Wall-associated receptor kinase 2-like
Amino acid sequence: MTLMHPKLLLHHTPLLFLLLLLNLSLPLAHHLPSNSKPGCQTKCANLIVPYPFGIGINSGCSISPLFDINCDNSSIPPKPFITTTNYEIVHISDNQVRVKNLAAARCYTESGIVTRQNIINMSLASTPYSFSTSNKVTVVGCDDISVFGSDIGKNFTSGCFSVCAKKSDITDRSCTGIGCCQVAIPKGLKNFVAVLISTFNHTWVHSFNPCGYVFVGDEERFQFRIWDLDDESFQNRTTQDVPVVLDWAIGNGTCDRAKKSADFACRGNSSCVDSDTGLGGYRCNCLEGYEGNPYVSPGCTDIDECENNPCDKHATCTNTPGSYSCSCSNGYSGDGRKDGLRCTAVKSQFPAIKFSIGLSVGLLSLFIGVTWLYFGIKKRKLARMREKFFQQNGGLLLKQHMSSNNGGLESTKIFSADELEKATNNYAEDRILGRGGYGMVYQGILPDRRVVAIKKSMIMDQSQIEQFINEVIILTQVNHRNVVKLLGCCLESEVPMLVYEFISNGTLYHHIHNYGEISWFAWKDRLRVAAEAAGALAYLHSAASMPIIHRDVKSSNILLDDSYTAKISDFGASRLVPLDQTQVTTLVQGTLGYLDPEYFQTSQLTEKSDVYSFGVVLAELMTGKTPLSLTKSEEERNLATYFIISIKENRFFQILEPRILREGTLEQLQAIGELANRCLNLKGEERPTMKEVAMELESLRRYTKHPWIQQENTEENEALLGEQSGLSSDLYAINVRPESSIRTYPALDSLDGNVIYPR
Ligand SMILES: *[C@@H]1O[C@H](CO)[C@@H](O)[C@H](O)[C@H]1NC(C)=O
Ligand SMILES: *[C@@H]1O[C@H](CO)[C@@H](O)[C@H](O)[C@H]1NC(C)=O
Ligand SMILES: *[C@@H]1O[C@H](CO)[C@@H](O)[C@H](O)[C@H]1NC(C)=O
Ligand SMILES: *[C@@H]1O[C@H](CO)[C@@H](O)[C@H](O)[C@H]1NC(C)=O
Ligand SMILES: *[C@@H]1O[C@H](CO)[C@@H](O)[C@H](O)[C@H]1NC(C)=O
Ligand SMILES: *[C@@H]1O[C@H](CO)[C@@H](O)[C@H](O)[C@H]1NC(C)=O
Ligand SMILES: *[C@@H]1O[C@H](CO)[C@@H](O)[C@H](O)[C@H]1NC(C)=O
C-alpha cells in the first residue's frame, strides 16, 4: 500500500522529460560544506561535522547544546553520537541526519518457545530531530505482526503483518505482506516503540524462518531477499546497512518569527526554509548562485561561474553577484552562453536567429502537442478502462437498479459533483470526519439542510474504486435499522463518492476507550449495542438474498446515532458469498487485533471470521481494553489471547472493567464472557453462528436486574473476587484506566492496520 504503483511512475515520465528538457534541475540532497566553528574539532573519525552541529558536549562548538555531538573516543575509531542519546550518527546533510539502526528480533524453537527477543524503543524527545517519513516500519518473517506506536505528541498504534506458508510463495525484492511487510510512519514523529508478536510462534514455518524481525529505517536502503528469512546475521546486518533517517530543524518557530529574533541563524546571501514536519523550526539554504555554509558568518559566498567557462569561445565571461554574464566579441552577436544562443557572426545574424527561434518554437509546440496528445490518449484510455471496469463491477447493473424504482432503492439518489462540492464547502479541512485506508469522510449539508456523511476515495486507484462499487452494491441490497443507510452516490466525479446518513455520536470505539472526555458508556447500553450489532451481522450473514461477510468488524466500524443505536458501517471490504459456496478464497483483509487467525493463515473466508472479530468487540466492551496495546506486558498485548487465557485460568472477573462488574449481574457477565470465548475459538467451525450470538445476547439483555438481585449479586461478586483474587470491594470504586496512556489514533489505525496481501 505504501509503494508507488508502477503505472503511476510511468504516468509521470513525460513530465520528467519536460522538466529535464526545460533545464529545470530537480532538487538534490546537498552536503553542508565542512565549515565548523573556528577552533573546533571538524571531524569525529570519518564523520565531518559542519556548523550548526559541533563536536563536544557543552563545548560551545554548535549553535545550541541541542546540536552537540558526543564524539566518544573510548572506542577505536571514535564514535559520534547525538547528544545525550546512544544513537550513533553515520551522516549529516543539510536537512537530515542518519543514525545507525536498532533492529529487533524475536526467535523461536521448533516447538514455538521464544529463545531471544528485544523491542525497539527510540525517543528524540527534547532534541531538534524527528523521524523522517523516508523511513518505513519493516517486518521480515513468515508469522509475524509488528505493533508500532507512539505516545508523545501523536498517540497511535499501527503495524503490519507478514505471513507465508511456504518458501515458494515468497517473491524476492517484494515487500507486500508475504515474508515482508512495510508501513509508513507519520510526519513529525518524535518517539516510537516497535514490538513483534506472532500468531503461531513460527511453529509452521520454523524450518525456513526461525526468527521474525522488525526495524524502522530508510526505505531506499532495504530490499527484501528470500534468504533474509533464515539469515542469522540479519539483525546485525540491518543495524549496519539500513540507517534511520532523521529530519532536523533549528528552534520551534517559523522563519517569519525567527527573522525577528536576535539569534536568527541564517547568515548573508541565504534564505530561510520552514521545516515541513509540523513541529516548527527552520533551516537555511544558500541563495542560487551562492555556496558555502549558510549558518557561518558572513554567510554564503558568490560562486565564480567563470571558472568553468560557461560562455561561447567568442565571448568573454564576467562574474556578477549570484550570476554571470557573457558578452560576444565584436562582429558576433547572441547571448554568448554555451547553453543558450551562443555567439554567431553578425552577417548571418538575421536568418540564423530567425531560424533558431523558429526551430525552437516549432520544437516546443511539437513537444507540447505530443505531450498533450499523450495525456489526452491516456485520459481517454483511462476513461474507457474505467467504464469497462465499472461494467465489470456491476456499475451498470447498479445504474439500472437505481433508475428502476423497485427493491427499496427509491431513496438512493445520484448526486452531482457540484452538489457535493457545495455541501462540503469544497471539501474543507474542518469538514473532515475521519480518514482511513479508503480515503476521507466529510460532513456535508445538503440544500434541504439534511446533514450527511460523504465518503471520498483519496487516490483514484482501481482497487479502491472496486471497494466503493462493492460497498454500493452491498448497501443497496441491505435494509436494516442497524446498518448505516446509503442515501446516494456520485459517479460523475474523478473518484466515486458515497453519501450516507450522518451518524452523530461517533464510533463505539470512542465511547469505550475515550472516557474522561465522553461520559461513561453504561453496561446496559454496551449490551444493547452489542445485541443490535450482532443482529445486523446475523441479518447480513443469513437474511439477505446473498450472504454478506463484513470482513472488517471492529468497534470503530460500529457507529452510534443520537439515541445510541448501533449502525454497522464500512462495507468496502465486504464480500457477497454465492449461496452454494460456504467459503471463498480472498486477499486477507482486516484490522490488526480483530483479524481471525484461521482466516489469516488459510485465507479461506467464512462467516465465522466476522464471528471472531465480533468476539474481540465483546471482549473490548467488557474489559475496556484496546485490542492491541503496546504499553502492556507481553501476555496482555493482544486482547483476544489475554481474554481466552484469563477465562481458562479462572481470572475472568479480574480483567473486567471495574465499573462493569458493578453494573452487570454476575450470571450475565459470565454468560457473555463464555459467549465471547466461544466466538474467539481458534477453530472457525467451533464458533457459534452470528445468529446464535445475536439470540443469546438478546435473551441475556432481557435478563434485567431487580434491586434484590443486584444486592445479592454484589455480595456474590465480592465473595468471588475475594476468593479468587483477594481484591477488596474498593476495586469497584476505582476508575483508573492505565491503558489510557496510549490511545489509538483511529485515522492511522485504520489506514495502516488494513493490510492487504495477495495469496
Ligand atoms: C578524548 O576526548 C577528550 C575530551 O574530548 C580529550 O581530552 C582526550 O584527549 C581524547 N582522547 C584521545 C585519545 O583522543
Ligand atoms: C521506552 O523508553 C522510555 C524511556 O526510556 C520508557 O519510559 C518507556 O517505558 C519505554 N517503553 C517501553 C514500551 O518499553
Ligand atoms: C507463543 O510463545 C509465548 C511466549 O513463549 C507463549 O506465551 C504463547 O503461549 C505461545 N503461543 C503459541 C500459540 O504457542
Ligand atoms: C551480532 O552482533 C552482536 C554484538 O555485536 C554479537 O554479539 C553477535 O554475535 C552478532 N550476531 C551474529 C549472528 O553475527
Ligand atoms: C520553543 O522554544 C523556546 C526557546 O527554546 C521555548 O521557550 C518554548 O517553550 C518552545 N515552545 C514550544 C511550543 O515548544
Ligand atoms: C552577498 O554577497 C555579495 C557578493 O558576494 C556581497 O557583496 C554581499 O555583501 C553579500 N550580502 C550579505 C548580506 O552578506
Ligand atoms: C498522548 O498521551 C499522553 C499521555 O496520556 C498525553 O499526555 C498527551 O496529551 C496525548 N497526546 C495527544 C496528542 O493526544
About this structure: Residues 96-248 form one domain. Residues 112-114, 200-201 surround 2-acetamido-2-deoxy-beta-D-glucopyranose (ligand 3) (CB under 6 Å).
